[in-house]
């Protein structure tokens, strides 16, 4: 579908936003891939907003190809997180689907360096590997916060969580 026919599932109403997101659990050398937009203080799993008439797994395959530049096999759904937070003085209700994913081409691996950069629309993104322990993911402020424990424990089956950030917190 061309860009003119693409519409993300985002609803803005007054100071609130609803969005549907898909994220990838991509692994290498015992680490997990994370990314952020330059200037953000927090990191997230690679992925993006779901578009109308697109399944969340299709979103993930498209986002990986756009941002990382290779195809990916999207595996099983692992987590569903309903995340309520504030960002830039806006209250956000986000539903996120998080899948296992495997890249068709391996990314470079380095434990401490940025391994990939890309421009995505108006955002410059940077990617790196992180050890999947709660303490390391805390250091990167991985969001949404429940992912930190889920990634460290990797419980069986699909996990569904609801996370409500304190109303005073202006972050994801």
TrEMBL record:
<dbReference type="Pfam" id="PF00293">
    <property type="entry name" value="NUDIX"/>
</dbReference>
<dbReference type="GO" id="GO:0016787">
    <property type="term" value="F:hydrolase activity"/>
</dbReference>
<dbReference type="InterPro" id="IPR015797">
    <property type="entry name" value="NUDIX_hydrolase-like_dom_sf"/>
</dbReference>
<protein>
    <submittedName>
        <fullName>8-oxo-dGTP pyrophosphatase MutT (NUDIX family)</fullName>
    </submittedName>
</protein>
<dbReference type="InterPro" id="IPR000086">
    <property type="entry name" value="NUDIX_hydrolase_dom"/>
</dbReference>
<feature type="domain" description="Nudix hydrolase">
    <location>
        <begin position="16"/>
        <end position="155"/>
    </location>
</feature>
<keyword id="KW-0378">Hydrolase</keyword>
<dbReference type="InterPro" id="IPR020084">
    <property type="entry name" value="NUDIX_hydrolase_CS"/>
</dbReference>
């Amino acid at each position: 579908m061309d860009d003119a026919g693409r519409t993300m599932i985002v609803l803005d109403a007054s100071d609130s936003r609803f969005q549907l997101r898909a994220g990838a659990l991509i692994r290498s050398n015992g680490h997990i891939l994370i990314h952020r937009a330059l200037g953000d203080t927090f990191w997230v799993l690679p992925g993006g907003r779901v578009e109308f008439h697109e399944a969340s797994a299709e979103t993930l395959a498209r986002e990986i190809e756009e941002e990382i530049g290779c195809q990916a096999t999207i595996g099983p759904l692992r987590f569903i997180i309903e995340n309520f937070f504030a960002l830039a003085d806006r209250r956000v209700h986000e539903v996120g689907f998080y899948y296992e994913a495997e890249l068709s081409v391996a990314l470079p691996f380095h434990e401490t360096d940025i391994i990939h950069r890309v421009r995505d629309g108006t955002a410059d993104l940077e990617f790196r590997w992180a050890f999947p322990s709660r303490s390391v993911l805390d250091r990167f402020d991985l969001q949404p916060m429940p992912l930190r424990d889920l990634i460290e424990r990797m419980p069986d089956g699909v996990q569904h969580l609801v996370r409500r950030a304190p109303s005073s917190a202006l972050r994801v």
